[in-house]
Known about the structure:
The protein is α+β, with helices and mostly antiparallel strands. It contains 6 helices and 7 strands.
Amino acid sequence: MLDTFSKRLRFCRTVTELTTNEVIEYIKLNGGKISVSGYSYWERTKDGTFPKKSSLEIEILCLLFNQKGLTVTSEWILYGQGQPPTMPWPGVIDDAELFNHCGDMLRHSKKWEVIQVAGSYGEPIILIGETLVVTEVEIYSSIHRKLVLVIESSSIRHAGVANVVDDETIEVINKHTTLLQRSNIMKLYQIKWIRKV
């Protein structure tokens, strides 16, 4: 969870694929003053505090992160308030680390949901304990040949690859093939990301 200044700062630097030296050099080139040990302290301090007289350096950092494609504000880096950052496509971050960081942003989104799998309704594609990032779908034709999670009116769940059979029927393929009528579907999600266990 990105609950401290240090974690948010380290997250921004990692997502933008910058090294500590590149960040320090950019700050100095743009009129800021910071040492390698000073910046390293910012990223690893446990209590999450930041130097009060460093607002110029934080603003310079925001400019750098924005140039690298990460839209972020100093208010978010310093206090975790305001609009969370909009991320570029991830590069060197591993899947688990990126997923944990994204959870912070997903809490502020109405478009995305995080669902943890608690049954065997998606095997072998999705297994018990895995976590899904999903977005609700309204247009049935957009899910053809995509991974989906379907919740029926009776609360039965199906996860797998969707095939649109006709305007009123879809099939979900996992370990079995299940035909579902549109009138029985309470929610339809496209699976955007699976965090494997």
